[in-house]
Specification:
The chain is mainly α. It is 48% helix and 1% strand. The chain is built from 19 helices and 2 strands. The protein has helices at 10-22, 39-52, 56-69, 74-89, 122-147, 157-178, 190-193, 199-205, 211-226, 232-238, 250-267, 275-289, 334-342, 348-351, 381-386, 393-399, 417-429, 441-447, 457-462; strands at 331-332, 354-356. Strands 1-2 form a two-stranded antiparallel ribbon. α3 packs antiparallel against α4 (74-89), α5 packs antiparallel against α6 (157-178) and α9 packs antiparallel against α11 (250-267). It starts with 9 loop residues before the first helix and ends in a 7-residue tail after the last helix. Residues 1-10, 106-110, 237-241 and 243-247 have low confidence and may be disordered.
């Protein structure tokens, strides 16, 4: 599938587009509702009268009573969501859905794109965060009932899906904003000018504490998986590996989006506070959004050596652990991917069938295997670093080998199996102070092997550049 280079402003554009779509449900304050005469209906009717009079607290109480009377009353659930949203947003006269648009970043500079809502003042951000969190909790309860056929079906999850997607996107943006330096509220501040407020900087900073970010992204991808039509047009423009041109029917596009979101939803499902999994997931998110830090994050000496394809490309036994930037020239096999989607296969390796891989301009100057030669130095190096041992996908499957060419010249210390290797790599990845080393270059060659085998003392010193001490 075609490479898409637009994800630098995915969240900004996504929010602006979906806010328009979502006006038909959660965000629409004037929608009419059919009323019946039983108790729950009467309470709901009174709730909507209060709502239309902008008496949101009173409306909220009526809708709660209606739900207490009949938890299956879907119109009461919708009214409750809308009342809570508007009550909390209206704590500030500045805060409503439409004025929020002016705070959505539309700067499309490739490296310094700032986080949407970066310059949102606390007077708006705080009530917005409270509104988003509150409505998200109510919506989750309603969605659970709807999934289990415990509502009357007048209003469904599918009906509110677009608005719910906006809620999850907002939550994700606000999570990112929370980690930003306070100076970032001023787009002309030193921090903003120096790139400290950039999406790339903020996302990579989350590697230190990824849990909340991963959870926020999981909700977005999970919602998308369950309601792919909400994101189909966005995926066509933004997500790597999804082309969905005119030759695909609407259903086929939705199936493709569902498969994509299913894979990403699985990747962002974190269990048992697994630190390795959380860090790996952040690498995947960052790589898929096009904001790689171009560093050796897993401590094997190789720089962003893994393609996001659900396969072990470097031969260390791990899969997709140190992901390169999605803006690289990676081509996908549309035919095989669509066949897999029709067969309801949704694992990464089924919807990331790579036909060929190559570096973007940034990566042409990066020596992934640290053999002293880059693609910029020698064009033949592209096949060495980026070519597969078996170029044809069918041959890779037949031989069970999805490794890249450079792995032919390295080996791994497999003492203790993959878990032993991962533990040693983890220790080395954390040893980032060149002036206070725990593991020398020779230690790393013996403990891991991998690309460390190719390092000289000079290139070893450069490994520490751009890392936190």
């Amino acid at each position: 599938m075609k490479n898409v280079l637009k994800s630098k402003f995915l969240w900004a554009s996504a929010l602006m587009l979906t806010l328009g779509i979502a006006g038909c449900n959660i965000f629409n304050p004037t929608e009419s509702v059919n009323i019946k005469d039983d108790d729950a209906d009467a309470l709901t009717y009174e709730g909507y009268i209060k709502f239309r009079n902008n008496e949101y607290s009173e409306a909220e109480e009526y809708f709660k009573k209606a739900i207490d009377a009949d938890s299956a009353h879907s119109e009461a659930w919708l009214g409750l969501m809308k009342s809570v949203l508007n009550r909390k947003l209206n704590t500030s006269r500045e805060t409503n859905v439409f004025t929020l648009l002016k705070y959505v970043n539309t700067n499309r500079d490739s490296d310094n794109t700032t986080v949407p809502f970066a310059n949102l003042p606390d007077s708006i951000a705080i009530p917005l965060k409270e509104a988003v969190d509150s409505v998200s909790i109510i919506a989750a309860q309603f969605i659970e009932l709807d999934k289990n056929n415990k509502t009357d079906g007048k209003i469904t999850y599918k009906y509110i899906a677009d608005g719910y997607m906006v809620i999850q996107m907002m939550k994700t943006m606000l999570v990112l904003k929370k980690k930003m330096p306070t100076e970032c509220a001023d787009k002309n501040s030193t921090a903003a000018v120096n790139g400290d407020c950039s999406m790339k900087t903020i996302l990579n900073d989350f590697k230190k504490d990824p849990v909340e970010t991963v959870e926020a992204f999981h909700e977005v991808f999970n919602t998308c998986e369950e309601n792919p039509e909400s994101m189909s047009s966005l995926f066509e423009d933004y997500l790597q590996g999804f082309e969905g041109g005119d030759y695909l029917t609407k259903d086929a596009k939705n199936d493709a989006v569902k498969g994509m979101c299913s894979a990403l939803s699985q990747e962002t499902t974190i269990e048992n506070n697994d630190g390795d999994k959380q860090t790996k997931t952040m690498n995947i998110i960052i790589g898929q959004l096009g904001y790689s830090d171009i560093l050796d994050d897993d401590g094997d000496g190789c720089i962003d050596e893994e393609l996001y394809d659900g396969e072990d490309n470097d031969g260390d036994g791990e899969i997709d652990e140190d992901i390169n930037d999605k803006t690289n020239a990676i081509q996908y096999d549309d035919v095989i991917i669509m066949k897999n989607i029709k067969l309801k296969k949704t694992s990464v390796k089924d919807i990331r069938v790579i036909k060929s891989a190559g570096p973007n301009e940034k990566y042409k100057t990066i020596d992934i295997d640290m053999n002293g030669v880059t693609v910029a130095d020698d064009p033949d190096e592209q096949d060495r670093e980026w070519g597969f041992i078996y170029k044809n996908y069918a041959d890779r499957v037949a031989n069970g080998n999805h490794k890249l060419n450079f792995t032919k010249d390295i080996y791994w210390n497999t003492e203790g199996g993959v878990e032993g290797l991962k533990e040693r790599k983890r220790k080395i990845a954390a040893d980032t102070d060149y002036n206070n080393l725990t593991y020398s270059l020779e230690d790393r060659k013996q403990m891991v092997g991998g690309c460390w085998l190719n390092y000289t003392e000079d290139s070893f010193k450069k490994w520490f550049e751009g890392r936190n001490k």
